[in-house]
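Project channel, design review

CF: Before we commit to the Cryptomonas curvata constructs, I'd like one complete example in the thread so the newer folks can see what an input/output pair looks like. Taking hydroxyethylthiazole kinase.
RD: sounds good, go ahead.
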Amino acid sequence: NPTVVRGNASEIIALSGACGVEIPSASGTGCKGVDSTASSDDAKSHGASLAREFQCIVAISGKTDYITDGSRVVACSNGTATLTKITAAGCSLSCLCAAYCAVAGGRFLEAVAAAFAHFGAAAEIAESRPEVRGPGTLRVHLVDELHRITPETLEERGLLA
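CF: and here is what came back for hydroxyethylthiazole kinase:
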């Protein structure tokens, strides 16, 4: 089984089988590939079901991120909407989750939640820089902030307990 499955709401709903095979559906709603057409709230129950079925962590990115092991759920509401305009931002987040899990000593729910907090805080800090004018400049400064962020920064933002 995988240790962690991370995706946007539509990806998690599709993985749960709730989407069926028709993409998009006749009504024009449902799964449409990798772009999320559903909210993370819509996918929360699907994520919990997947986590229970595969005995893993499921992390759903969205306006509110949800990380679950099937019984516990951590919500993370930091970050910036501009991340949705950056190709591969989710892939970068997945890599950060893997890095955190590598040193987590088996505490994968906490590791993934910390990775989401780190990524969201870095995005907020990067977007607040005056030289960031849109997705292109945010991408560059996001990488800088991912590198620069410290546990103290996360603690000051109320993201580290």
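RD: helpful, thanks. The longest strand covers residues 4-8.
CF: DSSP finds six helices and four strands in the chain.
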